[in-house]
Amino acid sequence: MTITVAGLKKEGADGLSVAQLIINENVETPQYVTVSVNDEFIAGDEFESAALQDGDSVEFLYFMGGGQ
Amino acid sequence: MAFTNEQLERYSRHIILKEVGSRGQKKLLNSSVLIIGAGGLGAPAAMYLAAAGVGTIGIADADEVDLSNLQRQIIHATKDIGKPKVESARETMEAMNPDVTVKTYHTFVTSDNILELIKDYDFIIDGTDNFLAKFLINDACVMAKKPFSHAGIIRFKGQLMTYVPGEGPCYRCVFKNPPPKDAVPTCKQAGVIGAMGGVIGSLQAMEAVKYILGVGDLLTGYLLTFDAITMEFRKIKLPSGEKHLHPEITELIDYEQTECEGI
User: Fold this and answer.
1) Residue in chain B lying closest to A35 (CA)
2) Record: fold of B31-237
């Protein structure tokens, strides 16, 4: 299946979970990333069970604390 | 209120814009913006807002200017080391534009003072460097129905979003709760390229100006990210909803201030 991750089209295994995608993408501080799929946030405790579908668009939103 | 000749000349590049004009410039002169944090983000934001003729600019920061600040906090100079940042910022803004009234708050923003601080301002800019302050500003602005610009910068990256009551998610809708202390690095721990504050802080000033003018599309419902290594901006659409994606904020959480230096 083809999914879009952070704006880039990628091939993924059927049934790929959000948790596995986080590993595949080497997401920094994975326990604190916010994930949206299409137009919904995925709760952290659903990362394992959330299976991605062909055509899904996934975004990783990161805490960015600096500013001073 | 008529413009003086000096004002007509000072703001001529604004007034000539059809989106601003005399009417827009008067709106700016009658507007007020509070900047929380006179650092990497707050410095350029404050300078552009002062130059633009935002009539009242509040600036809140508890710290003094440190030598390690000067790599990015362009509102302060070497002679200002040791001086309260809000004083140094006030002097720079007043020197830039005598039309601006600067109000200084030499204090940490806390659950005890934030609602009083923000209440008289049209727009708030979050230029703080820690998550506890960022969540406090979010919650206070949601409670008080105040628009604000959130931003963060680290290493070669930056991001910002704008909250306007009733239009799109707030910071807590996206990020839920502050991460544990030291779980996510801050500027001091990880470093930040100096010009990043200029890029993102200037965009925060842009959002404030557009909000005051009522011009264009704000970053409500979007997170704009910038990666200076790849020179890519991404405008990421955030999940939308008519309601906040968290329980109603009825009181401010008394987060402890982290001892993040380099503020």
Assistant:
1) B174
2) Rossmann fold (3.40.50)
